[in-house]
Each structure stands twice: as structure tokens, then as C-alpha cells.
Design goal:
single chain, alpha+beta, 3-stranded antiparallel sheet, 2 helices, elongated, Flagellar hook-basal body protein, cilium, Flagellar_FlgE/F/G, cell projection
């Protein structure tokens, strides 16, 4: 019976964590460039239960030997193994701001071994000089003329250098070339992740590579100035999934309460001595 406590309890914990993940997706439904998270829930290894019995051998000494009678498998609970971002293209939203840029996936290559489609990101440099990646093209110009993201991180060009502009009167072509006053200033830097699921997710829609800086992208994408890529969160599906998680949590809760009542009866009534 105590195994039932653990099984129901693990189910409640898994659904609670899944609900928290879905709530975070819903909260970022309007965040530019946000990538919805997906969860993978798996069960602990099953136990194969058997009963031990003894059989008497019809001999003079009445010997016995022990045997096992199969009962069947027993689940030992579930847990949420990991969360993985979904790197599908979000819808484009027009802002009219020259400093807003959207990355558009056109024909990015697919990994032949895993079947996973690659993803491109804007290149950023944080305050420690480390390179980070984002799909949020909501940029601005700081007091020193550097193109930065909302966190104040520097936007890098194709050569890994910071981009400096005189003002916000500039144009960006569909190939990422920045023009100001008729002269070429720089080309927006874009990196390609062959396996985006291996990236480390940071706060504020940022990603970091575990194996050094990502290589530059060679094509299969384009830019759109004056637009932002929206979140790829499906609000309707997320709400439905949250309701399903709540129902699963409640079902495990009722099972836990039933076990609790059974234990209470066993202690207070079955074990009573008259």
C-alpha cells in the first residue's frame, strides 16, 4: 500500500511541474521571440512482482522447496524528465520601428541523424564578453551609439564586432546589410545551431552554447526590418494542456486520499483489540 502513496505522490509532483512550465509559456505568449517549452514525462523502471510459496515434496522426510508465482508488473511512479524549447517560427508582427528586426526561417537544413531542423539566432555579447543567442529582434541604440537588446547586451555583426550607429535612421536589407547615409555600416551577425535542443536556455529568451560559439549561418533565412517575431506559444492549446494537467493532479490527489482513508481504517479499526 505504501508503494501506492509514492506512485500517486510522484504523479502529483510531475503534474505540478508541468503546470508551472505551461503557466510560464502562457505568461510569455506576447514576448517577442519566445520559444514555448515542452515537457517529457516518463515512468520509473517497473518492478515485476512475484509471490514466494513453498511446495511439499512427497518424500519420507517431507521436504519443501520454495517457488515463485508471477503476480505482474508494478509501476513505481513518474517524473518530468526535462523541458525542451520548441524552435518553430513565430508569427511576424509589424511595429514600424527601424530598430526592430525579425529573422525569417526560409529553408534551414535538417540534421540527417536526428531529423531535427536547425535554427538561426541573432548574436549578442553580454557584460562578461560571452556570446549569447536570441530570436528577439527588439533592439535599441544606447547612449554610445551601440545597437543593443532590451537587456543592454551588444548586438554583434557578422565579424563578431559591436554595431555602432549614428541614430535610428538606417535601413536593413533582407540579407542583413545595414545602410546609413548611403554607406554600408555592417552586416547583422547570425549564428546557426544544427541541434538547437542542445542549447542552454537562459532568462529573457536567451540561449547559450555548451560547446563554444556557434558557427555563422550560411543561408536559408532572411531579415525583415520593422517587424518582430512573436512567441510561438499556442495559447488555446496551452490552456487545454493546463486543464488536463489540473485534472491529472486532482485524480492523483483523490487516489492519495483513498489510500489515506484505508490506512486510517487499518490503524483505528482492524488493529483494535476488544
Amino acid at each position: 500500500m505504501f508503494r501506492g502513496f509514492y506512485t500517486a505522490g510522484s504523479g502529483m509532483i510531475a503534474q505540478q511541474r508541468r503546470t508551472e512550465m505551461l503557466a510560464n509559456n502562457m505568461a510569455n505568449a506576447n514576448t517577442p521571440g519566445f520559444k514555448a517549452e515542452q515537457s517529457t514525462i516518463r515512468s520509473f523502471p517497473e518492478m515485476f512482482m512475484s509471490t514466494v510459496n513453498a511446495t511439499r515434496i512427497p518424500t519420507e522426510k517431507g521436504l519443501r522447496y520454495k517457488g515463485l508465482t508471477p503476480v505482474g508488473p508494478l509501476s513505481t511512479g513518474v517524473y518530468m524528465q526535462e523541458t525542451l524549447p520548441l524552435f518553430t517560427q513565430g508569427s511576424l508582427r509589424e511595429t514600424g520601428m527601424t530598430t526592430d528586426v525579425a529573422l525569417i526561417d526560409v529553408n534551414l537544413p535538417v540534421n540527417t541523424e536526428t531529423g531535427e531542423r536547425g535554427t538561426v539566432f541573432f548574436r549578442l555579447e553580454n557584460e562578461n564578453g560571452n556570446e549569447l543567442y536570441t530570436r528577439n529582434g527588439n533592439f535599441t541604440i544606447d547612449a554610445n551609439g551601440n545597437l543593443t537588446n532590451p537587456m543592454g547586451y551588444y548586438v554583434l555583426d557578422a565579424n563578431g564586432q559591436r554595431i555602432q550607429l549614428q541614430n535610428d535612421e538606417f535601413s536593413i536589407s533582407d540579407t542583413g546589410v545595414i545602410m546609413q547615409d548611403g554607406a554600408t555600416v555592417a552586416t547583422l551577425g547570425v549564428s546557426f545551431a544544427e541541434q538547437p535542443s542542445s542549447l542552454l536556455k537562459q532568462d529573457n529568451g536567451l540561449f547559450a552554447s555548451q560547446t563554444g560559439n556557434l558557427p555563422g549561418a550560411q543561408g536559408g533565412y532572411s531579415y525583415q526590418q520593422g517587424y518582430l517575431e512573436g512567441s510561438n506559444v499556442d495559447a488555446a492549446k496551452t490552456m487545454t494542456d493546463m486543464l488536463a494537467a489540473f485534472r491529472a493532479f486532482e485524480a492523483n490527489q483523490k487516489i492519495l486520499q483513498a489510500y489515506d482513508r484505508s490506512m486510517e481504517k487499518a490503524v483505528n479499526e482492524i488493529g483494535r483489540v476488544n
